[in-house]
């Protein structure tokens, strides 16, 4: 009897430990941050979408990445406001060293532009790889209405970066007004302690937790500047959310673009702001 009781207790203990281990694994996998954090602190300055970043290499060379997805009224007028819409909904990605969250409202149709450039600045300018590696530009049009745009940069490896934040003159700018606020520079040395795959998983889990469901998965763009990793469309009621992850080639950076609004508006901005690499429909 004692042997049977001992065997039963041992079996019970093993099952208990297995359940506890499984629960801990589930809790960790359901943690929307996946324990992702930056290895160095960074200061956020609310600005408009887009970025200009220099990566300083150990050999003295500098890689420069710039991207600007912009919109302007073609008919009527409109406004751009600094609104932390993704942060308020808890759907922002972890480990961002630069972030922009804005709301654009157009009274009539709008004109868009999307420019990108990757440049190699060398100590010895005679090196064949110095100069512009790739550049692209694309123009399109979007319908009247409201769209929310979010733009993030996340380190995917160790590095030293010099970034510029592009500010609005105040939290809201009428498109008819002229704003000449100079960009604000900042430095970041370090990385994110999570892989890009885990950053994507953490972000997707936050999006699901906020009540969005996946509608479709799109083929990510693959160009000379951005290497697409993931592109998905989500829906919650009448709200559509597009989320795109792309690696910036040679920069140890990932760029995340989010667009939210009604279906037609989101799809129009997706077409306008992701065509820079493939020169899709529109005026190049």
Task: Describe the secondary-structure layout.
Elements: H1 2-29, E1 51-56, E2 62-73, E3 78-82, H2 85-89, E4 98-106, E5 110-121, E6 131-142, E7 145-155, E8 159-165, E9 172-174, E10 184-190, H3 196-209, E11 213-217, E12 226-236, E13 239-248, E14 253-261, H4 263-273
Antiparallel strand pairs: 1-2, 1-8, 2-5, 3-4, 3-9, 4-7, 5-6, 7-14, 8-10, 11-12, 12-13, 13-14
Distance between the termini: 84 Å
The residue-averaged pLDDT reads 83
Q: Work out the helix count.
A: 4
What percent strand?
35-45%
Give the fraction of residues assigned to helices. 10-25%
Low-confidence stretches: 17-33, 275-284
Strands, count: 14
Q: H/E series, N to C?
A: HEEEHEEEEEEEHEEEEH
Largest sheet: 8 strands, antiparallel
Shape: globular
For the largest sheet, list the strands in their spatial order.
9-3-4-7-14-13-12-11
Class by alpha and beta content: alpha+beta
Using only C-alpha atoms, the radius of gyration works out to: 23 Å
């Amino acid at each position: 009897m004692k042997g049977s009781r001992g065997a039963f207790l041992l079996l019970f203990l093993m099952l208990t430990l297995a359940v506890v281990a499984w629960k801990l694994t589930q809790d960790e996998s359901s943690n929307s941050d996946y324990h992702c954090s930056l290895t160095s602190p960074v200061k956020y300055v609310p600005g408009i979408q887009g970025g200009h970043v220099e990566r300083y290499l150990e050999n003295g060379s500098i890689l420069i990445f710039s991207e600007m997805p912009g919109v302007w009224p073609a008919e009527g007028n409109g406004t751009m406001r600094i609104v932390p819409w993704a942060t308020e909904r808890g759907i922002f990605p972890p480990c961002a060293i630069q972030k922009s969250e804005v709301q654009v409202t157009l009274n009539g149709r709008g004109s868009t532009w999307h420019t990108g450039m990757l440049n190699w600045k060398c100590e010895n300018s005679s090196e064949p790889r110095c100069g512009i590696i790739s550049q692209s530009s694309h123009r399109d049009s979007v319908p009247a209405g409201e769209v929310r745009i979010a733009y993030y940069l996340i380190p995917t490896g160790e590095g030293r970066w010099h970034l510029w934040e592009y500010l609005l003159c105040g939290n809201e700018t009428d498109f008819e007004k002229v704003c000449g606020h100079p960009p604000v520079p900042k430095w970041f040395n370090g990385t994110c302690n999570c892989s890009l795959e885990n950053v994507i998983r953490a972000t997707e889990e936050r999006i699901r937790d906020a009540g969005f469901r996946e509608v479709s998965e799109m083929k990510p763009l693959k160009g000379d500047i951005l290497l697409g990793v993931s592109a998905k469309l989500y829906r919650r009621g009448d709200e559509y959310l597009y989320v795109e992850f792309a690696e910036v080639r040679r920069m140890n950076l990932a760029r995340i673009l989010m667009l939210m609004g009604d279906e037609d508006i989101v799809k129009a901005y997706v077409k306008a702001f992701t065509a820079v690499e493939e020169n899709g429909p529109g005026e190049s």
